Amino acid sequence: MSDSLILPWLFCSCLFSAVTLAALYLRRKMNGFVPGDRSPPSLPSLPIIGSLLSLITDSPPHIYFQQLQKKYGDLYSLMMGSHKVLIVNNHHHAKEILIKKGKIFAGRPRTVTTDMLTRDGKDIAFGDYSSTWKFHRKMVHGALCMFGEGSVSIEKIICREASSMCDMLTESQNSAVDLAPELTRAVTNVVCALCFNSSYKRGDAEFESMLQYSQGIVDTVAKDSLVDIFPWLQIFPNKDLKILRKCVSIRDKLLQKKYEEHKVDYSDNVQRDLLDALLRAKRSSENNNTSTHDVGLTEDHVLMTVGDIFGAGVETTTTVLKWSIAYLVHNPQVQRKIQEELDNKIGKDRHPQLSDRGNLPYLEATIREVLRIRPVAPLFIPHVALQDSSVGEYTVQKGTRVIINLWSLHHDEKEWKNPELFDPGRFLNEEGNGLCCPSASYLPFGAGVRVCLGEALAKMELFLFLSWILQRFTLEMPTGQPLPDLQGKFGVVLQPKKFKVVAKLRADWEKFPLIPLIKCGKYSFIYKKKVTMDTKLKRGTRLESKFKKKKKAIGLQSLRHLQAHTHTHTLTLTAQCQNSAMTTSLGKTYDHISFTVSYPT
Questions:
Q1: For the chain, which terminus, N or C, has the lower number of CB atoms within 10 Å?
Q2: Is 321 in contact with 466 (CB distance < 8 Å)?
Q3: How many domains does the chain have?
Q4: For residue 333, with 0-12 CB atoms within 10 Å meaning exposed, 13-18 middle and 19 or more buried, which class applies?
Q5: CA 176 remoteness from chain centre
Q6: 543-595: per-residue pLDDT in tens?
Q7: Do residues 464 and 562 both lie within one domain?
Q8: Name one Pfam family in it (predicted).
């Protein structure tokens, strides 16, 4: 081609390309194919590694993403290797993604770590959005409703663990105690009772194994893993993956054991726990010809769901309780106000119950404020766009990963006055006698199709554990020790750093016994000074008359006083008979009872 023809040819080619692109643009606009039709601001990116160099910082991710918001705006993107990631920092965009376009953004990314944890996404939290997932979630939601809020059985379980916690605090009062292990044990027992109808004592081998593998999974997953960005790296030796495989193997053996036990003992007429409910739902779907071909529901789905509830339900709730205690010792005036509310509305004749939640707005507001100021998951589990769409004015391509920065939502100065100030009053109405939500920028449990299934259970646990503890104890820092650090350590959840507290029995409670914790026929009433007496009652002996013969022992009047401090206003003892256990009410005759009683000297 001669030089004289090159310029006209280039001009015609450019003109044709411009016209073609303009036509395509207009067509897409008219068809609404890509609303907004422009990409959000983006961090610098390089081939292969993406924006990783721009993410090198000493700040935890949720804080750094909030800082980048000042430069790039509320919505910006970055590249994690070859994956495009959209960072969301305000509630308008978050709710558009979670609620308005929830099904479009309901996908989950596949990573090496999550595939290992969930048997390739066969759980609820990390499973990809599909007909199988929808059926699976519906089944789990129905099962949880049977044992969730309003369930008498789950309330009794939580109260039992709260009572055990109070016993421990009474025994160690005025001593510095790290409550983290006890909180973990208590919450783990609640979840075990919910899932397996099991509860464990301190030192139980199976229980200790459970705690060990759970902590191993948390510690391993918490580390930044390049193998999730560059999966091909798993061909090289990886210490963290090796530990994770070992912990998952221990977990799976336990889950399989419980599953096999439940299959043997299963009855359509009795549902003891969540695993029974899931088995029933699975069998019902099979009997109704909802075959695995239709929904892909397998034994793995049931096991991984229980693993989900166990794993997420323990770590998150325990962490919120630890943050609550940290903020209460930082703010003794808040603690006193909660105790005044408990004294006025509950008194000292009984323990708090779930039905009291409406009468304890300040305690409920405090829990909400803890969830706001230190969200347990400051970054939501990533979502994935399942088709081309938009967020706000920006185009979002299919396959884009979306991370909602809950920290930014809960610390948005446009939505919250003094967001770093701990102020439960912001969640109270003007009269101070009812709850309110002062901002739409509050999503502690998410929203939409991916909302947290354990929300109701978590709220029950937080309310009952905190109300039981604060009703009789004041939490303080040990003399000479600094207050807990409130920055937290980012990982699977945002954890407070380790700290110890002193639990002091409140003055008004020193002369009152704790409500007995029932354990295998042994009952313990704790007074200011503990004196124990073990005895056996012969057939026909009345409990009151036995004590009346003892100098300085509990007489009939005191026993009635104890009776008035129980939930049911009936003190129940379990008689250990030769062939079976028998439960009778106070004042009746007994066979042989082995019990422990503490009474004032």
A1: N
A2: yes
A3: 2
A4: exposed
A5: 26
A6: 333 333 333 333 323 333 333 233 332 333 333 333 333 333 333 333 333 33
A7: no
A8: p450
